[in-house]
From TrEMBL:
Keyword Transmembrane part of the UniProt annotation: no
Domain of life: Bacteria
Family to which this protein belongs: Belongs to the Glu/Leu/Phe/Val dehydrogenases family.
GO molecular function, one term: oxidoreductase activity
Domain Glutamate/phenylalanine/leucine/valine/L-tryptophan dehydrogenase C-terminal: 197-428
Keyword Nucleotide-binding in record: no
Lineage: Bacteria, Pseudomonadati, Pseudomonadota, Betaproteobacteria, Burkholderiales
Keywords associated with the record: Oxidoreductase
Annotated SMART domains: ELFV_dehydrog
Name of this chain's protein: Glutamate dehydrogenase
Cross-referenced CDD domains: NAD_bind_1_Glu_DH (cd01076)
Pfam name, any one: ELFV_dehydrog
Length: 431
């Protein structure tokens, strides 16, 4: 197989022997390029981020020593609007990962047609090793370092893995101190008391459910009684589990970082949430019939499988064992291109991350709009608008996939990249 670095002119800051998630993204762009017609002359625009900022983030530790951390903000493309994308605090964050996540934001925002480009940020840190005070100092210093390029009309960060409402509140406050005015729209995913939006916490899981319902209808799978298996029981997986269970599906297996709980009759999701809140993980849940190890999860037969944890979980190694009809990618980048091909050959319908988990950024967009107008909507209004946008996006992607005879991933990329490159073409190149 040709590797991404053999086909692409790579910038000097990447290691051609280990492209990481950025290499996965480049392969996805290769698959869409033949479908872009005359716009393909602009495709190189998508293969390099517009702007990369690497920052040193020093903090004074509680014991008086000084620690330095590596931070990033990558703005992949801003042809259609300001940058938008989360901030991840994780010990394994790399430039390649932040670049890929920023590019997937470009595609995602265009796929649901919200007026944003794509961006992402991160700090290479394990936040569990920091006290609350240290975490606050880290967040504020990082915000100050990237304040050169963020802003309500430039680039709007949001939470991602290991960042939350509190981190967003500190980011907003730091930006307000630096700028000398209160700009609530500089970040989304804020607490409700600071201009956050109702429905934001549940938005990604809700969006996964809405597109899942559409995909199930296309596949002739009834939600009532459907067997659902979920990897990840956090913000995305936990909410999706509740919504599928409320709609009458049987959530037969849930896996988190400690293991897998199974109940063939359907796990009691409300009780599982209570258990996780108290015990910190699904392990030991009294309502489970069986506890399996991490790898056995992939062999469980289901109608709908939802990866909602980390990148690169479904691989060429476990894809042959997966027996399901529909995969809803709640996580970003959970399926490698090799696994994608294996599953497509097995007639599994994969609803890609750039469509399936776009509910979060859609309600972030609502939050930003509400902040600008200082006029806040009801939760019912937010959920209705979210459902409408996700259903429309699914229908458009489905139509492209049928017309061009391509997977839903390539169809989403066709729709999104066409929108991005049309904007680029009509704007023209500066100067
Ligand atoms: N939160 C959002 O709004 C949002 C939006 C779009 C995409 N995503 C993506 O969804 C994914 C999950 O995000 P989240 O916000 O739910 O995170 P989270 O931290 O709330 O939950 C993560 C879950 O994954 C589990 N997990 C971690 N490592 C695991 C492993 N090795 N094996 C099995 N399970 C493991 C954890 O136990 C936890 O249950 C990430 O890829 C994120 O980028 C999140």
């Amino acid at each position: 197989m040709t590797t991404a670095h053999q086909q692409h002119v790579l910038p000097s800051y990447l290691n051609p022997d280990d492209l990481g998630p950025w290499g996965v993204y480049l392969q996805q762009i290769d698959r869409v390029t033949p479908h872009l017609g005359s716009l393909s002359r602009w495709v190189e625009t998508l293969k390099r981020p517009k702007r990369i900022l690497t920052v040193d983030v020093p903090i004074e530790r509680d014991d008086g020593t000084i620690s330095h951390y590596e931070g990033y903000r990558v703005q992949h493309n801003m042809s259609r609007g300001p940058g938008k994308g989360g901030v991840r605090f994780h010990q394994d964050v790399t430039l390649s990962e932040v670049m890929a996540l920023s590019a997937w934001m470009t595609v995602k925002n265009a796929a649901v047609n919200v007026p944003y480009g794509g961006a992402k940020g991160g700090i290479r840190v394990d936040p569990k090793t920091l006290s609350r005070g240290e975490l606050q100092r880290l967040t504020r210093r990082y915000t100050s370092e990237i304040s050169l390029i963020i802003g309500p009309n430039k680039d709007i960060p949001a939470p991602d893995v290991n960042t939350n409402e509190q981190v967003m509140a500190w980011m907003m406050d730091s930006y307000a101190m630096i700028e000398g005015n209160l700009s609530t729209g500089v970040v989304t995913g804020k607490p409700i008391s600071l201009g956050g939006s109702l429905g934001r916490r549940e938005a990604t899981g809700r969006g996964v459910f809405v597109v899942g319902r559409e995909a199930a209808a296309q596949r002739g799978v009834a939600i009532e009684g459907a067997r659902v298996a979920i990897q990840g029981f956090g913000n995305v997986g936990g909410v999706a589990a509740t919504m599928f269970a409320d709609a009458g599906a049987k959530v037969i297996a849930v896996q988190d970082h400690t293991g897998t709980v199974v109940n063939e009759g359907g796990l009691d999701i409300a009780q599982l949430h209570k258990h996780v809140a108290e015990a910190g993980s699904v392990t030991g849940f009294p309502g489970a019939e069986a506890f399996l190890d991490r790898d056995a999860f992939w062999g469980i037969e289901s109608d709908i499988l939802i990866p909602a944890a980390l990148e690169q979980q479904i691989t060429a190694e476990n894809a042959p064992r997966i027996r399901t009809k529909i995969i809803l990618e709640g996580a970003n980048g959970p399926t490698t291109p090799e696994a994608d091909d294996i599953l497509t050959d097995k007639d599994v319908l994969i609803v890609p991350d750039v469509l399936a988990n776009a509910g979060g950024v859609t309600v972030s967009y609502f939050e930003w709009v509400q902040d600008f107008s200082s006029f806040f909507w009801s939760e019912d209004e937010i959920n209705a608008r979210l459902t409408h946008i996700m259903q429309d996006a699914f229908k458009s992607v489905w139509a492209v996939s049928q017309e061009k005879k391509v997977t839903l991933r390539t169809a989403t990329f066709i729709l999104a990249c066409t929108r991005v490159l049309q904007a680029r073409e009509v704007r023209g190149l500066y100067p």
